[in-house]
Specification:
The termini are far apart. It contains 2 helices and no strands. The longest helix has 37 residues.
Protein backbone atom coordinates (compact mmCIF):
# COMPACT_ATOMS: atom_id res chain seq x y z
CA UNK A 1 0.00 0.00 0.00
CA UNK A 2 1.24 3.47 -0.90
CA UNK A 3 2.24 5.70 2.01
CA UNK A 4 0.09 8.81 2.21
CA UNK A 5 1.95 12.07 2.25
CA UNK A 6 1.70 14.55 5.06
CA UNK A 7 -0.17 17.76 4.26
CA UNK A 8 3.11 19.66 3.82
CA UNK A 9 4.56 16.96 1.57
CA UNK A 10 1.43 17.02 -0.60
CA UNK A 11 1.52 20.81 -0.87
CA UNK A 12 5.19 20.73 -1.86
CA UNK A 13 4.48 18.13 -4.54
CA UNK A 14 1.61 20.29 -5.82
CA UNK A 15 3.94 23.30 -6.04
CA UNK A 16 6.40 21.27 -8.08
CA UNK A 17 3.66 20.05 -10.43
CA UNK A 18 2.37 23.59 -10.94
CA UNK A 19 5.90 24.81 -11.70
CA UNK A 20 6.35 22.00 -14.25
CA UNK A 21 3.02 22.81 -15.91
CA UNK A 22 3.73 26.56 -15.99
CA UNK A 23 7.01 25.93 -17.82
CA UNK A 24 4.90 24.56 -20.68
CA UNK A 25 7.52 21.99 -21.65
CA UNK A 26 5.64 18.84 -20.67
CA UNK A 27 4.71 16.13 -23.14
CA UNK A 28 0.95 15.59 -23.37
CA UNK A 29 1.19 12.14 -21.76
CA UNK A 30 3.29 13.51 -18.91
CA UNK A 31 0.93 16.46 -18.50
CA UNK A 32 -1.99 14.07 -18.14
CA UNK A 33 -0.18 12.13 -15.40
CA UNK A 34 0.78 15.37 -13.61
CA UNK A 35 -2.84 16.53 -13.62
CA UNK A 36 -4.00 13.15 -12.25
CA UNK A 37 -1.37 13.34 -9.50
CA UNK A 38 -2.33 16.94 -8.69
CA UNK A 39 -5.98 15.91 -8.42
CA UNK A 40 -5.06 13.12 -5.98
CA UNK A 41 -2.94 15.50 -3.91
CA UNK A 42 -5.66 18.16 -3.79
CA UNK A 43 -8.17 15.56 -2.60
CA UNK A 44 -5.70 14.39 0.07
CA UNK A 45 -5.16 17.98 1.28
CA UNK A 46 -8.90 18.65 1.41
CA UNK A 47 -9.44 15.48 3.46
CA UNK A 48 -6.68 16.44 5.90
CA UNK A 49 -8.01 19.99 6.27
CA UNK A 50 -11.56 18.72 6.82
CA UNK A 51 -10.36 16.27 9.48
CA UNK A 52 -8.32 18.96 11.23
CA UNK A 53 -11.33 21.28 11.18
CA UNK A 54 -13.54 18.56 12.67
CA UNK A 55 -10.95 17.82 15.37
CA UNK A 56 -10.69 21.48 16.33
CA UNK A 57 -14.48 21.82 16.50
CA UNK A 58 -14.68 18.74 18.73
CA UNK A 59 -12.00 20.11 21.06
CA UNK A 60 -13.72 23.49 21.27
CA UNK A 61 -17.04 21.83 22.05
CA UNK A 62 -15.39 19.83 24.83
CA UNK A 63 -13.97 23.04 26.28
CA UNK A 64 -17.44 24.61 26.38
CA UNK A 65 -18.89 21.79 28.50
Amino acid sequence: MEKKETYNEAVEKLRTIVEDIEKGELDVDVLSEKVKEATRLIKLCKEKLFKADEDVKKILEELDT
